[in-house]
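Notebook p. 47: complex prediction with zinc ion.
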Amino acid sequence: MEREAGIERARAWISEAGSVAVLTGAGVSAESGVPTFRGPGGLWREHRPEDLATPEAFARDPLLVWEWYAYRRELIAACRPNPAHEALVRLEKRCEDMSLITQNVDGLHALAGSRRVLELHGNLFAIRCCNCGAERQQREPPASLPPRCARCGGLERPGVVWFGEALPGQALESALAAVRRAELVLVVGTSGVVWPAAGLLQAAPDGCRSVLVNLEPTDQSEQVDLALHGKAGEILPGIVAA
Ligand code: BJW
Ligand code: ZN
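Predicted complex, structure tokens below:
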């Protein structure tokens, strides 16, 4: 289908749906200058995830892991929401029941003005004590690396979800419930390879329509009713237009 016709169809489906679940990944923030993980220029092209984004890596070398996160925190703190994030803010205002489920840790959905965001992989600006569990939000760089807990002196870690770790239970449950009651699921800018987020699409009920927006086809392109290929910042404003 021609892109304009696809956008038109997705727009009609969205306006007919009472309940919409949106699943986003790194591609939604790419046009804000946030590097994606996989694909050209992706973070994993230069770093092996098992070296940096696992509890084992952190136990082995907390300073190395923190240096990588400090670099990304600084880069992302300077990034601003783009038209894709803004379109999803408009959709939330208009839609009776919309859930925004994100794998992103950059906080750009909230910065754009989305009110209810389910962050499945945590947040880059959260810092949590490995010893007492105290968590704080801090956008400024830590005074020294690795940072230490003001309460108990324990080693602190980035408040994100690493490979092999459980996702925040409440966010995952709410995400699953949102997809199960959705009349339309919109999947934007994710390679769809990381579980359990990748499995959420399969929880959509019979009769639920599904639309995928991505620069290129992914494994999930086969699972949806309509796949739109192009930049999220160009396509989303079109499909949520009134
Ligand atoms: C555009 C665009 C534009 C570009 N417009 N599009 C084998 C099978 C199944 C599962 C497993 C398995 N082996 C291991 C697992 C489990 C593992 C997993 O899924 N591994 C697979 C990779 C194989 N999962 C886990 O470990 C999860 N936990 C878990 O399973 O726990 C079990 C458990 C239960 C109970 C107790 C204990 C344990 C945790 C996963 C955590 C993922 N964490 C990361 C890092 C977060 C912190 C950080 O940022 O450093 O999350 S990994 C990374 O990938 C990050 C992302 O959120 C996640 C997903 O990536 P995403 O968003 O899809 O980005 P990309 O780069 O992959 O794709 C971008 C897409 O955008 C591309 O398609 C582009 O084309 C597109 N794009 N520009 C539109 N302008
Ligand atoms: Zn502590």
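Notes: The beta strands are 19-24, 97-102, 117-119, 122-129, 135-137, 156-160, 184-188, 209-214, 226-229. Residues 91 and 240 are 6 Å apart (CA to CA).
Next step: compare against the earlier run before touching the bench.
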